[in-house]
Specification:
Largest sheet of chain C: 2 strands, antiparallel
Number of helices of chain C: 21
Number of strands of chain C: 4
Distance between the termini of chain A: 46 Å
Shape of chain C: globular
Structural class of chain A: mainly alpha
Strand content of chain A: under 5%
Chains: A mainly alpha (about 40), B mainly alpha (about 280), C mainly alpha (about 600)
Helix content of chain A: 55-70%
Oligomer: heterotrimer
Order of helices and strands of chain A: H
Number of strands of chain A: 0
Number of helices of chain A: 1
Radius of gyration of chain C: 26 Å
Chain lengths: ~40, ~280, ~600
């Protein structure tokens, strides 16, 4: 199944998105800034 | 030939950078100049005005005490309720808790100035310190270095801002060495002709004034019927403190106080008041 | 050399190595004599000599010394790297080029020392009190500095002049070891000098009055020392790369022989690559430095970013934008060197749009200082539509996208000469495309998030943005390396390059030099009217922060002077290779 490049593309999109999301979350929380919907508006 | 071409090219690039730096606003920041002023006639009103100059000048308070959320916006907030709330805050260990903290407003303000971490207003502490350490420097220490008289002047200004009579002492003759704020604008002789002042600050650019029909801010032709002299002064110095119905905040520059001499401000206000008569 | 001599020399070196740290990091015992604090000279105490502006003299010499020193320290760093490349790839071109890098450095070295001596003299003459105090604080470390300078000279000369004698086999390793010593000494020199500079911004090891309370090490290890070390280390590499790139571009234009053109084209490409490598992580180092400045003194941080110096960051944006546009233009022009380059050239226009767009966002000021009539036209100090582009999240987003695109330009050129042969090439490409898509989305997303959140979050959100940029670069390099293993390489026609592209290589050193001058001015101005922040006041008549225009003019004058010196240096290094032909009569007679 992973032979099809478009399947790989979609899988890669999901994996990278998960990776960057957890990276962002980790960095923000490491700085003492909780990440959550309640923080969005000024 | 290659040499001339490449060098010429590089020099042109360099002069473009230099030219760009010359078209930006040019401000020179001078070191504070010490200047002695006589104590004669230096009353509490003078002290308050001096405190305000320190607040925006040498004290560099407005670097953080502004609308960007770094520190409480002292020029806009309601100071009387705020100061009372803070004295009553159990974390302050003040008079309510029977602790050693400040027990009156003057002492509280002085403590905040010279020992900012003694009591930190909730939410304004250094990150991770759980509001026990203040990011504010002690203003009697370098690099700000306010002296006793200057501290008193700032306290007087803040007490006056809360609507109370200042409780600080006036400077005695031997203390009266007053440091001027750093000059950031080229100083000129004050203008006394209201039309020249009006032309310089260009109110008519945004306000409908004598037929200019601009509508960014409210009409000024009848301002004398709507506001007192004091209110007009406040509206010029702190344009965002009160916003007229139907207009938006943040459009009027907040630095007119720095652009005008006091004389010019008074001339301008008198002119505006007389306009509607 | 006889064994006894060798032994004696070794023993002497060991003794120096053993004693030096003792002097350098002197313990607190000997300090008792200097407890009175920093001197407080009044205006009359500053020597006035024939109406000369002391500050302009010290400023110019310091900046000139820094330009030369940055160049002289950076070149051996990448010369040894390219020398290593030569050993690994067994490609002699690398070795020839490394030697040529060093040849340029040699002539610049003595000038560095000369200007450094001039700077020291100027400081001692015009600022005797400050220098006296600094010498008390750093004591023996200043002697170490002088000793290290001697060691730097020795190793530099040996490294260069033994190049051909120690070129092959085991001897090559010996030669590279000398280079390693050279670089260690060079970096130590820079770190020591940085300690003095950063001490003036964030003094430590002294009390509030300036009386010495700690060891030299405590004064050295002040809060801003390491951020400054990292920032200067990276910037030096980028700067050195840009300057030798300018040299290569000039030689490319001046040479007529195709073979020489090919060599200098390749040298220019490599130099540009080195400059970009040093440049990409610089925003990260700059962020760290700025964060440490804020942590050390909130007031100093705000003076830099929100006070009268804030405008300078607009000029910085223009300069960095110029550097990025030039570097990218050069990379795009490089696509014509390969036969498959055209396949990639069609994407250039999209990259160009992002880079120019990012540049424009970056130069949009947040609030404008306007004349009343401009105010009337705009309807306020912030533009209704463009205003939001002026704030930090938008600018961070723009600069990160520009960095990502610059890397993409490089990656395209790298790939245009290689055809992957691994079975999963198509899938690998998809993974990389997905990486770019998600990475860019993350950078933009963090920017939008920062826009809607309070200040602390705006600052906080810039960290994931930079990390994402670095992540894209690291991950695609890793995938590329795996994927292009055993790839079919196609010929790169070195020298098949337009003349115009070489001018991009001139823009880099000019803009870099000017930019470094500007940043030096900002860094020094952060101390406002203090020689040593909060410890020793500057009471001279020149204790003011000059206007941007005045600073710009001074920086331009210094840059012109530096360019003149570099032209002289390049000319010298060519002169050394020029031989006069023998007169004809003698040959015939």
């Amino acid at each position: 199944m992973l032979g099809n490049k478009w399947v790989v593309f979609v899988v890669a999109l999901v994996v990278w998105a998960a990776f960057f999301y957890s990276m962002d979350k980790f960095i923000m929380e490491y700085q003492g800034l909780p990440v959550g919907a309640d923080m969005m508006p000024v | 030939m290659t040499f001339l071409k490449t060098m010429g090219f590089s020099i042109v690039a360099m002069f473009l950078f230099a030219a760009f730096s010359n078209i930006l606003p040019q401000v020179q920041s001078d070191a504070p100049v010490e200047e002695e002023i006589p104590t004669d006639g230096f009353d509490m009103a003078g002290m308050i005005a001096y405190g305000e100059r320190l607040f925006t000048g040498k004290g560099t308070c407005t670097l953080c005490h502004n609308d960007l959320g770094r520190a409480p916006d002292l020029l806009v907030m309601n100071l009387s309720t705020a100061f009372n709330d803070r004295l009553a805050d159990p974390r302050n260990e003040g008079v309510s808790a029977g602790g050693e903290g400040a027990s009156d407003v003057e002492a509280y303000l002085r403590e905040s100035l010279v020992d900012p971490s003694a009591y930190v207003v909730e939410g304004f502490g250094k990150k991770g310190s759980n509001d026990t350490i203040s990011p504010m420097p002690a203003v009697d220490a370098p690099p700000i270095e306010l002296n006793e008289v200057e501290l008193n002047a700032v306290i007087a200004f803040l007490q006056d801002g809360a609507g109370w009579d200042p409780t600080v002492p006036l400077p005695s003759a031997e203390e009266a060495v007053i440091e001027e704020e750093p000059e950031e604008v080229e100083s000129a002789e004050p203008e006394t002709d209201p039309l020249v002042v009006l032309d310089n600050v260009y109110c008519a650019g945004c306000h409908d004034l004598e037929g200019s029909e601009a509508d960014v801010g409210p009409n000024l032709d009848d301002i004398g019927t709507r506001m007192t002299q004091g209110e007009i002064i406040e509206a010029i110095l702190y344009p965002n403190a009160i916003i007229a119905d139907g207009y938006e905040a943040d459009y009027m520059p907040e630095d007119f106080g720095e652009q005008m001499h006091t004389v010019e401000l008074m001339v301008l206000v008198d002119y505006l008041i007389n306009l509607s008569n | 050399m006889k064994h006894s001599q060798t032994l004696a020399a070794t023993a002497a070196l060991a003794a120096i190595a053993f004693i030096l740290p003792e002097i350098a990091m002197a313990s607190g015992e000997e300090v008792v004599s200097i407890l009175e604090g920093a001197p407080k000279p009044s205006r009359g105490d500053y020597p006035v000599i024939a109406g000369i502006s002391a500050r302009t003299i010290a400023w110019s010499l310091a900046q000139m010394h820094l330009f030369l020193a940055a160049f002289v320290l950076a070149v051996p760093l990448f010369a040894i790297s390219t020398e290593m490349m030569g050993v690994i790839t067994k490609d002699d071109r690398y070795d020839t080029m490394s030697r040529e890098f060093m040849k340029i450095t040699m002539a610049a070295y003595s000038l560095t020392a000369l200007v450094g001596g001039g700077l020291l003299l100027a400081l001692l003459v015009f600022y005797p009190h400050l220098m006296g105090y600094m010498i008390k604080v750093f004591r023996g470390q200043m002697l170490i500095y002088a000793a290290l300078f001697g060691l730097e000279s020795i190793t530099l000369y040996i490294y260069f002049y033994s190049w051909d004698a120690l070129r092959r086999g085991n001897r090559k390793w010996f030669h590279m070891s000398i280079g390693l010593v050279l670089n260690t000494v060079g970096l130590t020199l820079m770190f020591v000098a940085n300690a003095w500079t950063s001490f003036m911004m964030s003094p430590s090891g002294v009390d509030a009055a300036g009386a010495i309370t700690g060891t030299v090490w405590e004064a050295t290890r002040n809060p801003l020392w390491n951020p400054l070390n990292l920032h200067r280390f990276l910037a030096n590499i980028a700067y050195g790369g840009a300057i030798v790139g300018g040299y290569a571009a000039y030689m490319f234009l001046a040479e007529k022989r195709a073979e020489a053109k090919a060599h200098y084209d390749w040298m220019g490409y490599t130099s540009n690559f080195i400059a970009i490598i040093g440049f990409l992580p610089l925003p990260f180092a700059g962020y760290w430095l700025m964060a440490e400045i804020y942590a050390y003194s909130q007031q100093m941080g705000i003076t830099a970013m929100g006070g009268i110096l804030a405008w300078l960051f607009i000029i910085q944006a223009v300069l960095i934008g110029t550097i990025m546009l030039a570097a990218n233009y050069y990379l795009w022009s490089g696509l014509m060197r390969t036969d498959r380059g055209a396949e990639y050239a069609k994407y250039v226009k999209y990259i160009a749009v992002v880079i120019v767009g990012g540049f424009l966002v970056w130069v949009t000021p947040h609030s404008l200082v306007l004349t009343p009539s401009e105010l009337q036209v705009l309807g306020g100090t912030n533009h209704k539509v463009l205003g939001p582009l002026g704030i930090m999240p938008a600018k961070n987003t723009a600069v990160n996208l520009m960095l990502v695109m610059t890397f993409l330009s490089f990656q395209m050129f790298y790939r245009s000469s290689r055809v992957a042969t691994v079975s999963w090439a198509k899938q690998g490409n998809m993974v990389i495309i997905a990486l770019y898509v998600i990475g860019i989305a993350n950078i933009v997303g963090a920017g939008i998030y920062g826009y809607f959140t309070p200040t602390v979050y705006k600052v906080g959100a810039s960290v994931p943005q930079v990390t994402t940029t670095l992540m894209i670069i690291v991950a695609s390099v890793v995938i590329d390396v795996l994927m292009l293993r055993g790839a079919k390489t196609e010929k790169v026609h070195w020298g098949r390059m337009s003349e115009r592209s070489q001018y991009a290589l001139f823009v880099l050193p000019v803009a870099f030099t000017w930019l470094m001058g500007l940043m030096g001015y900002i860094r020094s101005s952060l101390r406002t009217n203090w020689h040593i922040y909060t410890i020793m006041k500057d009471n001279s008549s020149e204790a003011y922060i000059p206007t941007i225009g005045e600073a710009g003019n001074t920086i331009t004058a210094i840059t012109l002077g530096f360019m003149a010196i570099m032209v002289f240096v390049f000319w010298l290094s060519r002169l050394g290779a020029t031989k006069q032909s023998e007169p004809k009569q003698e040959a015939s007679s």
